[in-house]
């Protein structure tokens, strides 16, 4: 099929056990190409790596210098995400038709990201996932918990909003994020499985041609022009900048309602606890 050449350091990371997912997060492209061993805190837990602030500042400055407004997918939220109400359905978008890196939404409550949905009686619990398609721990998260999320979506107990950041790999992450937006626009019913498949393929260094080929071969969706044109690259940058404003420390970062998963227990078990509290 495709000739995909793994990058050495990413391939090495694929051997990380799923347990490491709950103890660490992904480093930014601002760190060395060969990832250092995660530091451990006093309790013996690995610290979550953070996006490099200098990279975020540079990206914001690039957007300021450019001055252009970028196109936005019709199903996007003003916080840079896509909300799934079922495994095959996206909620209508709430974002403006164009994004401006000089006009970012901000949280009204310090320490709490913008756009979280407090649990409402009788409503599904809203889950927000900050992910990066080049993050190995995000790949682990999708492999370990993707079926759980799909099952809960299918049962109507949750909604899921993916906010795709692009700080891990300065080339591949934005290209994959753009492809996710292209799929959300062209074939929203395939957005979730496509995101899941591409994220789990992080170690293969997917090219734009590969991203288009996966969409066509596996989902019958033609997003080649959208990918080639980089239609939603500005939106990918916007999502990352909004997450930076909200001080998201790394990926994966996950919220249910306004509660953050701290990684000390399996996500599905923690989510079940949040669902039980929500039902009470």
Keyphrases for this structure?
six-stranded mixed beta sheet; 9 helices; 39% helix; 280 residues; two-stranded antiparallel ribbon; alpha+beta; disordered N terminus
Structure description:
The chain has 280 residues and is an alpha+beta fold. The protein has nine helices and eight strands. The strands form two sheets. Strands 3-2-6-5-7-8 form a six-stranded mixed β-sheet, sandwiched between helices. It has a two-stranded antiparallel sheet with strand order 1-4. Strand 5 (125-131), helix 3 (136-155) and strand 6 (158-164) form a beta-alpha-beta unit.
Please summarize what this structure is.
The protein has helices spanning 8-13, 53-66, 136-155, 172-186, 191-200, 208-219, 224-229, 233-245, 267-279, and strands at residues 70-71, 81-86, 89-90, 98-99, 125-131, 158-164, 253-256, 259-260. The chain is of the alpha+beta class. It is globular, with a radius of gyration of 18 Å.
Give the secondary structure arrangement, pairings included:
Elements: H1 8-13, H2 53-66, E1 70-71, E2 81-86, E3 89-90, E4 98-99, E5 125-131, H3 136-155, E6 158-164, H4 172-186, H5 191-200, H6 208-219, H7 224-229, H8 233-245, E7 253-256, E8 259-260, H9 267-279
Parallel strand pairs: 5-6
Antiparallel strand pairs: 1-4, 2-3, 2-6, 5-7, 7-8
Helix pairs in contact: 2-8, 4-5, 4-6, 4-8
In N-to-C order, the SSE pattern is HHEEEEEHEHHHHHEEH
What sort of overall outline do the alpha carbons produce when their principal axes are compared? globular
- The overall pLDDT, averaged over residues, is 82
Quick one: how many beta strands?
8
Weakly predicted, low-confidence segments: 1-23, 27-49, 56-67
Measure the end-to-end span. Answer: 50 Å
Structural class: alpha+beta
The largest β sheet comes out as:
6 strands, mixed
For the biggest β-sheet, the strand order reads: 3-2-6-5-7-8
| Global Rg | 18 Å
Strand content is 5-15%
Approximate helicity band: 25-40%
Count of helical regions: 9
């Amino acid at each position: 099929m495709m000739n995909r050449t793994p990058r050495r350091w990413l391939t090495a990371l694929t051997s990380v056990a799923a347990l490491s997912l709950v103890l660490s997060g992904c480093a930014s492209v601002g760190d060395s190409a060969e990832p250092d061993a995660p530091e451990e805190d006093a309790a013996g837990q690995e610290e979550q790596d953070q996006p490099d602030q200098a990279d975020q500042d540079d990206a914001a400055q690039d957007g300021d210098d450019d001055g252009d407004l970028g196109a936005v997918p019709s199903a996007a939220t003003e916080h840079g995400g896509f909300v799934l109400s079922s495994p095959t359905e996206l909620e209508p978008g709430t974002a403006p038709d164009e994004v401006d890196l000089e006009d970012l939404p901000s949280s009204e409550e310090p320490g709490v990201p913008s756009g979280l949905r407090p649990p409402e009686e009788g409503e599904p619990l809203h889950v927000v996932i900050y992910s990066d398609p080049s993050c190995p721990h995000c790949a682990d998260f999708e492999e370990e918990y993707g079926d759980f999320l799909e099952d809960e979506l299918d049962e109507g107990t949750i909604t899921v909003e993916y906010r795709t950041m692009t700080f891990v790999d300065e080339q591949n992450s934005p290209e994959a994020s753009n492809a996710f937006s292209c799929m959300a626009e062209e074939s929203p019913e395939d957005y979730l499985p496509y995101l899941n498949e591409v994220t789990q393929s992080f170690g293969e260094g997917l090219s734009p041609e590969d991203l288009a080929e996966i969409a066509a071969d596996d989902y019958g969706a033609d997003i080649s022009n959208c990918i080639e044109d980089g239609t939603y690259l500005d939106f990918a940058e916007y999502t990352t900048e909004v997450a930076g404003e909200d001080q998201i420390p790394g990926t994966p970062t996950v919220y249910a309602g306004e509660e953050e998963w701290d990684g000390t227990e399996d996500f599905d078990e923690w989510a079940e606890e949040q669902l039980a509290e929500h039902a009470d």
